[in-house]
Amino acid sequence: MFRAKDAATARDMYHVACDMLRERCPKAADVAEEAEPDALAYLAFPPSHWKRLRTNNVQERANREIKRRSRVVQVFPSERSLERLVGAVMCELDEQWSESRYFAYGKIQELYDEKRKKGPAGPPPTSPKRPGR
Questions:
Q1: Is the pTM here over 0.70, yes or no?
Q2: For the chain, which terminus, N or C, has the lower number of CB atoms within 10 Å?
Q3: Mean pLDDT per segment of 10 residues, for the chain of length 133 residues?
């Protein structure tokens, strides 16, 4: 569903996935349906932004770096020493990210151009609840 080419297809696929989940785990399907606006929030942006918005690569990269550095230490003498190491890694990553751009200028400009075409911004559209849910 996250690789769909348009928003309507992504929403339809999300509903199909929830229905498939309902057969095996109804409570999980209910949670997934309640989370639909959050899970599909990236659809409110231009399609060229979708891949970077829907993934958590940045978080995974940060976690890998913390893991790599903490593996060297193996046993921390205190909780504060672990906090200092993680804080140092996060500060270093912040410096790296402040020097680079996650989105190129042209991609950011697409967002502003699209807003100008639509007019005043309102809340992103949500799909109506389906009967029986």
A1: no
A2: C
A3: 84 93 93 91 80 76 90 88 93 83 67 66 53 50
